[in-house]
Amino acid sequence: MNKETKFQNLITPYRDSLNAISDLYGDGCSGMSDLFYLLNHRVLHWLDNDPTVAVREKEIRFRKRFYPVLQKIGPGVLACTQVIENRKQLENPTCAEPDEPIRLPDRPVIFAANHGFHDDVLATVLTAGRPCYYVWGSLPLLYNTFDGFATSLVGCVCVNRKNAASRKALVAKAVKAIEYGMSIIIFPEGGWNKTSERLMLDLWKGVYDISAAAKCDVVPIAHYVRDMEVLDKKNLIHTVMDDPIRLYAYERDEGLTILRDTLASWQYKMMEAYGRSDRMTEMQGFDTSDDRWHAHLKERMKGVARYDSTIERYADYRPKNVIRPEDAFLPIAQISDDAMTAQNMQAVLAARKLVQERTDSDFQRLY
């Protein structure tokens, strides 16, 4: 049996979770990796939209037994050294008191972390201190890379973000894992934060919906890495885990705002404590700050295997009630040259310039 025939046979039961076969490939790839056929095809059932098929109690028992091994080897696998911060000292640098311990419920929780640097998944798993299933939304990475294989050892709730039925099934699959006694890790921003001016992207509603459906608390985990493009043990991952939030006790928008503000506040405190603001150093070799940020993002993206730009460039949540200037002026900018008059020409040209400038600096959707 050749690879193509084997591949077709393997994915046939999960066609409802795929818009196209290419959902599994990633940019610049026309097929599956050898790793898929050797190992990762064993977790294709995670694609299934039926929670009883995708999430299996026997697998969760195995991964709970594997977690102590991960705790031992995980810190050595991290490219950067992780430091768990003392919250009291971040709020008051002169404070010498030890941090108050985080008291987690005995039942499963949702760990919600910010997203945006190499090894943020492993750093979050190690911070959680208990076995977790990770909400995973990059199929090419999961099924074709060693990072994906490592994730398969930890366990995940899989979602194809290109497929409506798969997105709809996510909450039920996560709840099923929680019912089997497994905590969940989720990055509610949906993708890496590539903006130059925002500490956190707006949060997708999934973290709230899972919390409400399972009646479980959400535990914020904030990370800060000063030099995100540098993979070196001397480059530290600063991490804060904060007290659980009963997210489902709030209305959705209020709960998501509280969670986002909590994560962003800890990031800001760590940035103040460990960040760098030497403009002369940062701008060396660059004419503008935009040029510097383009170079920074290109460096960060070098290590990303099997990238799916169709997903990742549009992974951020943009509230419909927030009107962006480029959206407001787009209808004017789209007026054709033939329809321009002496009366509207200045407005049309100004709108085109504004839309182009905003598009060129929309780093989140350029990379």
List keywords for this structure.
single chain, 367 residues, alpha/beta, Glycerol-3-phosphate (1)-acyltransferase, 2 domains, seven-stranded mixed β-sheet, 9% strand
How would you portray this structure in words?
The protein has 367 residues and is of the alpha/beta class. It has two domains: 3-274, Glycerol-3-phosphate (1)-acyltransferase, CATH 3.40.1130; 323-367, no CATH class. It has helices at residues 3-11, 34-38, 51-54, 57-77, 87-91, 120-128, 139-144, 146-154, 164-179, 206-214, 252-274, 279-282, 289-301, 309-312, 325-333, 345-360; strands at 81-84, 110-113, 132-136, 156-158, 183-186, 218-225, 236-241. It has a seven-stranded mixed sheet with strand order 1-7-6-2-5-3-4, sandwiched between helices. The longest helix has 23 residues, at 252-274. The chain is globular, with a radius of gyration of 22 Å. It starts with a helix and ends in a 7-residue tail after the last helix.
